[in-house]
């Protein structure tokens, strides 16, 4: 599909109003994350079925096993070790709702009977993303949501090489985790690691790292260092806070150090640390965020932008 068509469709999807009650789900795929929004009004049964698998962790460490180029990208069937996902009872079809199989929409996969026809009331854990408009699927398959961020990543998966004569990717993408995200929000992601700056103040910025704790390898945690100027001198505040995957914001307690000198005169005993306040990090996209602080020096909100990204990552979700 031409690049312009993908971009136009992605921008159109972003322009659609999102119902406040519609849940979002982060699919953290090693080929790039997808943020999807389910339509609980038009497809309540299918959305509830998908969320049941999400909440039970049954999509974690699964694979995207089918890539039919310019048709669909399919997952939700197999674990990374090749075993089948444990299934809940089948869900009844909602195929005649107002949703259609257009580029970027998500549909419920169906098994076929002996004649090769889809069994419309036998949907389970399988799902697929339409990588073009597929109106011929409307008759049998239920559409129940759409990609709201990650169309570029979906396009990349659509273009993965497959084995000759098959629709199995040579290197199958790994779905590391599927977790809920608050309606209308953007989740904290590893690609938020980097330097962030204030467009209104070049002397102010924040260094962020989304990581696991070394040694124990537990996480995730968000490590934050804020550099700024106060009364003509540069100040640095640091902090760390745990969060859960799928969270869209985290409050980090910050501390400030004073008294030490750089170079040969450095004396650790002169360093004093005190609580400075807190900063709540909330991302509005992969490269934009609002950082709201409360401290003894005042309160406010910093609208920051990403200056750097981790290597081999791109802030081109749409």
Detail the topology: elements first, then pairings.
Blueprint: H1 3-15, E1 24-29, E2 34-38, H2 44-55, E3 62-68, E4 72-79, E5 105-108, E6 127-130, E7 143-149, H3 151-158, E8 174-181, E9 194-198, E10 201-211, E11 221-230, E12 233-242, E13 249-258, E14 272-283, E15 288-295, E16 298-306
Features of this protein?
single chain, 318 residues, mainly beta, Cyclophilin, 2 domains, eight-stranded antiparallel barrel, eight-stranded antiparallel beta barrel, 3 helices, 10% helix, elongated
Q: Explain this structure to me?
A:
The longest helix has 13 residues. The chain is 10% helix and 39% strand. Strand 9 and strand 10 form a beta hairpin. It contains 3 helices and 16 strands. With 318 residues, the chain is mostly beta strands. It has 2 domains: 179 residues, Beta Barrel (Cyclophilin), CATH 2.40.100; 117 residues. The protein is elongated, with a radius of gyration of 23 Å.
**What's the architecture of the largest domain, going by CATH?**
Beta Barrel
- In total, the number of strands is 16
Strand content: 35-45%
Task: Give the full name of the CATH homologous superfamily of the largest domain.
Answer: Cyclophilin-like
Distance between the ends: 15 Å
Shape field: elongated
Q: pLDDT below 50 for ≥5 consecutive residues: which ranges?
A: 9-19
The overall pLDDT, averaged over residues, is: 90
CATH topology annotation of the largest domain: Cyclophilin
Instruction: Give the strand line-up of the largest sheet.
Output: 1-2-7-5-6-4-3-8
Helix segment tally: 3
Radius of gyration, taken over Cα atoms and rounded to an integer in Å: 23 Å
- Describe the sheet with the most strands: 8 strands, antiparallel, barrel
CATH class of the largest domain: Mainly Beta
Helix content: 10-25%
Reading the helices and strands in chain order gives HEEHEEEEEHEEEEEEEEE
Domain count, please report it: 2
Structural class: mainly beta
């Amino acid at each position: 599909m031409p690049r312009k068509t993908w971009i136009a469709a992605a921008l159109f999807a972003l322009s659609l109003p999102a119902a406040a009650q519609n849940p979002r789900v982060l699919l953290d795929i090693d080929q790039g994350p997808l943020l999807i929004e389910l339509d609980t009004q038009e497809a309540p049964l299918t959305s509830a079925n998908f969320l049941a698998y999400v909440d039970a962790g049954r999509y974690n460490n699964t694979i995207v096993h089918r890539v039919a180029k310019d048709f669909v990208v399919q997952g939700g069937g197999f674990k990374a070790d090749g075993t089948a996902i444990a299934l809940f009872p089948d869900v009844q079809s909602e195929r005649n709702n107002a949703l259609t199989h257009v580029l970027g929409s998500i549909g419920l996969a169906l098994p076929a009977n002996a004649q090769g026809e889809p069994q419309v009331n036998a949907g389970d854990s399988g799902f697929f993303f339409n990588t073009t408009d597929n109106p011929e699927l409307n008759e049998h398959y239920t559409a129940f949501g759409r990609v709201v961020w990650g169309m570029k990543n979906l396009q990349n998966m659509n273009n993965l090489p497959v084995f000759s004569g098959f629709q199995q990717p040579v290197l199958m993408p790994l779905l590391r985790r599927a977790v809920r995200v608050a309606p209308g929000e953007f989740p904290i992601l590893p690609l938020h690691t980097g330097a962030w700056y204030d467009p209104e103040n070049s002397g102010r910025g924040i260094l962020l790292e989304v990581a696991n704790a070394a040694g124990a390898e537990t996480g995730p945690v968000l490590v934050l260092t804020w550099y700024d100027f106060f009364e003509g001198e540069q100040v640095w505040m640091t902090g760390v806070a745990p969060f859960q995957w799928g969270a869209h914001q985290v409050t980090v307690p910050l501390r400030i150090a004073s008294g030490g000198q750089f170079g040969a005169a450095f004396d650790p005993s002169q360093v004093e640390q005190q609580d400075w306040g807190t900063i709540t990090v909330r991302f509005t996209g992969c490269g934009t965020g609002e950082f709201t602080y409360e401290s003894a020096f005042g309160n406010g909100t910093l609208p920051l932008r990403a200056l750097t990204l981790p290597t081999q990552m791109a802030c081109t979700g749409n």
